[in-house]
Amino acid sequence: MSQLDFEKPILELEAKIAELHHVSGDSAVNIADEITRMQTKASRLLQQAYSKLTPAQKVQIARHQQRPHFCDYISALIEDFTPLAGDRNFAEDHALIGGLGRFQGQSCIIMGQEKGHDTQSRIKHNFGMARPEGYRKAQRLMKMASQFQLPIITLVDTAGAYPGMGAEERGQSEAIAKSIETCLRTDVPIITVIIGEGGSGGAIAIAVADRIYMLEHSIYSVISPEGCASILWRSGDYAKDAATALKLTAQDLKQLKLIDGIIPEPTGGAHRYQEETIHNVERTIQKAMKDLMPWDKEKLLKSRREKFLAFGRNI
């Protein structure tokens, strides 16, 4: 497991517990009491650490490479998932995956960013940073959902849209803006969950939804803390201060009324308890789907429009 700075004492203790388990299997020495004592201590340290997380620490957790990714949610929650490739204009983008499937028997369109789990898959998926063709594929899928009256589920996990020269030459900003516009005009329910990072326009391009939820230790912001620090303080050394100032945690955004709810993670984070976290997301999507269906097209579009126009009015 990748180490987070504030988790090092806990991981060291867990490593010692694992060693003792190995010894207990090969020795007649009874060390069960010692193992129990150390497990109790590890649980206490974990509880203490996760009860007072700073925004900067939540950024670390949101980026943890062992958090469940888009493909993990697809495998666990979506039946008969059929990915649809290409933007019918330039190319396929592997950073943003989308297609048809069934969520608890309900046909739907599901899409989201996939970061990858190892070096090879991260390179293939461009670390979850979509190019213009990815957002144009998202537009195509949303239009398909509207045509066949299928609800849309989006799972957001990206540091932001890819900022490379080729992406800019092919109209990155236009593709993001058009994707946001398509979200607003799509006359079917849209449910979004921020499962890790929600970075800038790359995230909001598929997150203009009727219901927006965040996992407890996910983040959602207009810019990364490092990018913010480099602009405001001319130094990445102030990234922790920027993380606090950006109000990027789920708790901050719920207080600001920018999201509809927070999905709890087990103590220790989604990277420790993937199955339980995925189950919590499933229950939240299920409830949102039930609340939104059946839908009236005109009322749905009006409600979504008013939802986003209201942002910032009461702050």
Write a concise keyword list for the protein shown above.
single chain; 315 residues; alpha/beta; 2-enoyl-CoA Hydratase, Chain A, domain 1; eight-stranded mixed beta sheet; 14 helices; globular
Short description:
This protein has 315 residues and is α/β, with parallel strands linked by helices.
How would you explain this protein's 3D organization?
By secondary structure, this protein is an alpha/beta fold. The protein folds into two domains: 5-52; 62-309, 2-enoyl-CoA Hydratase, Chain A, domain 1, CATH 3.90.226. Helices cover 49% and strands 16% of the residues. The chain has helices spanning 8-26, 32-50, 55-62, 70-77, 119-124, 132-148, 165-169, 172-185, 200-204, 225-232, 239-245, 250-255, 274-292, 297-309; strands spanning 78-83, 96-103, 106-113, 152-158, 190-199, 211-215, 219-221, 261-263. Strands 1, 2, 3, 4, 5, 6, 7 and 8 form an eight-stranded mixed sheet that branches. Helix 1 (8-26) packs antiparallel against helix 2, helix 6 packs parallel to helix 8 (172-185) and helix 10 (225-232) packs across helix 11. The model has no long low-confidence stretch (mean pLDDT 90).
